[in-house]
Amino acid sequence: MGAFLDKPKTEKHNAHGAGNGLRYGLSSMQGWRVEMEDAHTAVVGIPHGLEDWSFFAVYDGHAGSRVANYCSTHLLEHITTNEDFRAAGKSGSALEIVAEKAY
């Protein structure tokens, strides 16, 4: 069997939300893989003083779910608690500099 199933799992998981003038929807399906490898984050109203901001991300597991699930659970927290990010405040240009430094 390996990394693939004999037949795909076609059950779909759907979610939606709204806030900050935004509406979003998402859907996922495992398909032929032995486990669901992808994960996502959808947060409308970021904590830590950024309630008027939102964060959306999709993480592709690339043959495994561990990193995708970790990122889904922890990446936003790592970003918003980063010292440079916090120091930048809500200034768009300062946040661009912080994002560039991260990569």
Notes on the structure:
The chain has 103 residues and is α+β, with helices and mostly antiparallel strands. It has one domain. Helix content is 31%, strand content 45%. The protein has three helices and four strands, in the order ββββααα. The protein has helices spanning 66-80, 83-88, 92-102; strands spanning 4-19, 22-33, 39-46, 50-59. The strands form two sheets. A two-stranded antiparallel sheet has the order 1-2. A two-stranded antiparallel sheet has the order 3-4. Strand 1 and strand 2 (22-33) form a beta hairpin. The longest helix has 15 residues, at 66-80. The protein is elongated. The N and C termini lie far apart (38 Å). The mean pLDDT is 88. Residues 1-21 are annotated as: Disordered. Residues 1-14 have a biased composition (Basic and acidic residues). Residues 23-103 form the PPM-type phosphatase domain.
List the helices and strands and how they pair.
Layout lengths: L3 E16 L2 E12 L5 E8 L3 E10 L6 H15 L2 H6 L3 H11 L1
Antiparallel strand pairs: 1-2, 3-4
Protein name: Protein phosphatase, Mg2+/Mn2+ dependent 1B
Pfam families: PP2C
GO molecular function: metal ion binding; protein serine/threonine phosphatase activity
